[in-house]
Amino acid sequence: MAVEELATAARVAPATVYRNFGAKERLVLWDEYDPMLLEAISERLGTLPPQESTLEALVASLDALYGEDRKRMLRRARLISEHPQLQAVTAADRCPSPGH
């Protein structure tokens, strides 16, 4: 499906989709959970070393999210596993090019 079709279905202009997400793959990969995870890490940094803070925050956050939003999280994971374009964007996010 093209961005234009997605925009029409969402009743917004294609420019709005591009401005907010950059590409249609980002509609699936956009992660509204990041702010919550960063806050959880920040809360723990005062009492734990950075690596422990991150691990503890990640486990606690994912546990809470999985309890609240299990179906959507699994649907997103399934979409990524079934679509090479989404896998490529996800891999690029994890391995930024030098200088970034």
Q: Summary?
A:
The chain is built from six helices and no strands.
Please provide a written account of the structure.
With 100 residues, the protein is mainly alpha-helical. The protein is 77% helix and 0% strand. It has helices spanning 3-10, 14-21, 25-29, 34-45, 50-82, 84-94. The mean pLDDT is 83.
Structural class: mainly alpha
Query: With helices defined by DSSP (H or I, 4 residues minimum), what is the helix count?
Result: 6
Rg computed from alpha carbons, rounded to a whole number of angstroms: 16 Å
What fraction, in percent, of the residue positions are helical?
Answer: over 70%
Total strands: the figure is: 0
Mean pLDDT: 83
Tell me, briefly, the overall form.
elongated
Could you tell me the strand content as a percent range?
Answer: under 5%
Number of domains: 2
Report the sheet with the most strands, covering strand number, pairing sense and barrel closure: none
Q: Give the end-to-end Cα distance, rounded to a whole number of Å.
A: 30 Å
Give the SSE order as H and E letters. Answer: HHHHHH
Residue stretches low in confidence (pLDDT < 50, at least 5 long) are none
